[in-house]
Structure formats: structure tokens, C-alpha cells
């Protein structure tokens, strides 16, 4: 059984009914935007939160089990040492509260990946602290809401692409465009093409220590990309690919021989 922990900052879903401390400098227009966005997310995710949608995706597979759900509001952001030791693959979705995650938690995630835990960063998680810790770059890009995407498989023999067609059309998806400030991927699996002509490295794998990192671009919060069967298959494949419990280390050290 592959043990999965889902981190969802769980902020935007609550902006209609709750105000967070970091919103103190938000103007009236931004507060109104947040409430409207919360309603859109609820419609897109059938009344639930983004982590509810993701949990259902992974638990369609008998050998994948979501053991923990972590959010920004929980103690230690829900990512204690005990939780991460009990995690084979960490799935990370976040958007507007990256800076609220503590540096200690980001380094903790980095260390567990280097010791063999797999991690999947989704969509706007490209700017989260753990991804920056692991990749060592700004991870900045260009973006535009309100577009469509053709997701092209450029590595059809890769395990993450198993059972996936050469092209997936997403009628609604946020445009992410180059330049994407990331180190050269060890494996490039998908390239996205958008209605405005932009292209993007949409599915990237890196090896970090004993762990694997997968970044996957589709998944804007108000669109239904995660309900598309081929996108669900990619995420399930990614969980299987990044999990490596047999190689998980207790600590990293130099060993005498």
C-alpha cells in the first residue's frame, strides 16, 4: 500500500466565510474577489475542497491510500516529522498563502524527499517554499486565466504516461507560459500548448537524493481539470512512480566502507 499525504493550503475555499490574518492589508475589492472565488471553487469541486477532489482521485486505486490531509491551519501545517515518516508520496496544492508556510516545514519536506519520499507539486504550487528548496530556483513563469490547453505527451514510454493519449484537450485551463525558471528536468513527460500560442513544460521530473519530484501544471482551482479521466490517470501514475518506500532512509550520512 502506497501511503499518501495531501497538503492543500485550504485558504481560497474559505474566503467567503472566513478572514485570515494575512488578509489585513487586502482592500475591499480583493476581499470581494476572494468571496467570489470561494463560490467558484465550490461549484468546480462539487461543494467540497480541493483536497477532497484529490483524495477521491488517488483512492480510485486499491493500492493508494490517503493517510493524512494537511492544511495551513493545522499544527505544523499538518506536516510533523511523524506524518512525513508515515508518507510515501506527498501531494502539494497551494496558491495564495505560500509565504505563510514556515521555513522549517519547507526544509523538513526537502529533507524527507532527499531521504526517499516522493512529492507531487500541482499547478500553482510551483511557487511554494518546498519546491523552491528542492529545485533551487525562483520557479517563476507567465500566466493568464481563461484559456484552453492541449497537453502533449512527449515521453510516451514514461511510467507517468502509461495509458494516457498523446494529446489531452482541456477546454478550460489557466495558461502557464515560458520562461519557467526551473532547472533542466531530468525527465520531461508533458508539454502544454495554449490558445494564445504559448507553450509550457507541464510535466517535469527531477531526482533529489533518494526521492523523486514531479511537477504537473493542470489544475486551476475554478476549473474541472481534475475531473478529466486522463488527468486523474496521470496523477495516479505519478503517485506510483514517485513512491519508493524500499529506499527510504532514516537519515542522510557519509558511510565508511
Biggest sheet layout: 9 strands, mixed
CATH superfamily annotation of the domain at 2-135 and 203-247: Class I glutamine amidotransferase (GATase) domain
Question: How many helical elements?
Answer: 6
Q: What would you say the CATH architecture of the domain at 2-135 and 203-247 is?
A: 3-Layer(aba) Sandwich
Q: Given this structure, which CATH class of the domain at 2-135 and 203-247 is correct? A: Alpha Beta
- Helices and strands, in order, run as EHHEHEHEHEEEEEH
Counting helices, strands and paired strands, the structural category is alpha/beta
Blueprint (SSEs and pairs):
Blueprint (H helix, E strand, L loop, with lengths): L1 E7 L19 H17 L5 H9 L5 E7 L10 H5 L3 E5 L9 H12 L3 E5 L6 H7 L6 E12 L13 E11 L9 E8 L4 E10 L2 E6 L12 H14 L15
Helix pairs in contact: 4-5
Q: What's this model, at a glance?
A:
This protein has helices at residues 28-44, 50-58, 81-85, 103-114, 129-135, 229-242; strands spanning 2-8, 64-70, 89-93, 118-122, 142-153, 167-177, 187-194, 199-208, 211-216. The chain is an alpha/beta fold and 257 residues long.
Task: Describe it.
- With 257 residues, the chain is of the alpha/beta class.
- It has a domain at 2-135 and 203-247: Rossmann fold (3-Layer(aba) Sandwich), CATH 3.40.50.880.
- It is 25% helix and 28% strand.
- The chain contains six helices and nine strands, in the order E-H-H-E-H-E-H-E-H-E-E-E-E-E-H.
- It has a nine-stranded mixed sheet, with helices on both faces.
- It is globular and about 65 Å long.
- The model has no long low-confidence stretch (mean pLDDT 97).
Amino acid at each position: 500500500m502506497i501511503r499518501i499525504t495531501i497538503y492543500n493550503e485550504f485558504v481560497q475555499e474559505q474566503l467567503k466565510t472566513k478572514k485570515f490574518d494575512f488578509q489585513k492589508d487586502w482592500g475591499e475589492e480583493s476581499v470581494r474577489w476572494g468571496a467570489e472565488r470561494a463560490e467558484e471553487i465550490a461549484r468546480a469541486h462539487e461543494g467540497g475542497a480541493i483536497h477532497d477532489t484529490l483524495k477521491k482521485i488517488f483512492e480510485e486505486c486499491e493500492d493508494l491510500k490517503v493517510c493524512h490531509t494537511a492544511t495551513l491551519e493545522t499544527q505544523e501545517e499538518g506536516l510533523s516529522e511523524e506524518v512525513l515518516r508515515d508518507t510515501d508520496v506527498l501531494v502539494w496544492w497551494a496558491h495564495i498563502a505560500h509565504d505563510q508556510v514556515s521555513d522549517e516545514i519547507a526544509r523538513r519536506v526537502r529533507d524527507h524527499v532527499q531521504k526517499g519520499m516522493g512529492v507531487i507539486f500541482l499547478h500553482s504550487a510551483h511557487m511554494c517554499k518546498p519546491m523552491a528548496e528542492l529545485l533551487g530556483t525562483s520557479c517563476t513563469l507567465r500566466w493568464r486565466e481563461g484559456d484552453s490547453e492541449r497537453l502533449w505527451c512527449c515521453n510516451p514510454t514514461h511510467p507517468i504516461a502509461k495509458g494516457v493519449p498523446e494529446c489531452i484537450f482541456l477546454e478550460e485551463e489557466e495558461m502557464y507560459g515560458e520562461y519557467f525558471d526551473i532547472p533542466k528536468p531530468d525527465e520531461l513527460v508533458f508539454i502544454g500548448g495554449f490558445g494564445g500560442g504559448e507553450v509550457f513544460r507541464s510535466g517535469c521530473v527531477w531526482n533529489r537524493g533518494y526521492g523523486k519530484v514531479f511537477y504537473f501544471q493542470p489544475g486551476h482551482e475554478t476549473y474541472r481539470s481534475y475531473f478529466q479521466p486522463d488527468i486523474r490517470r496521470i496523477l495516479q501514475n505519478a503517485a506510483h512512480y514517485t513512491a519508493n518506500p524500499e529506499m527510504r532512509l532514516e537519515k542522510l550520512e557519509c558511510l565508511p566502507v
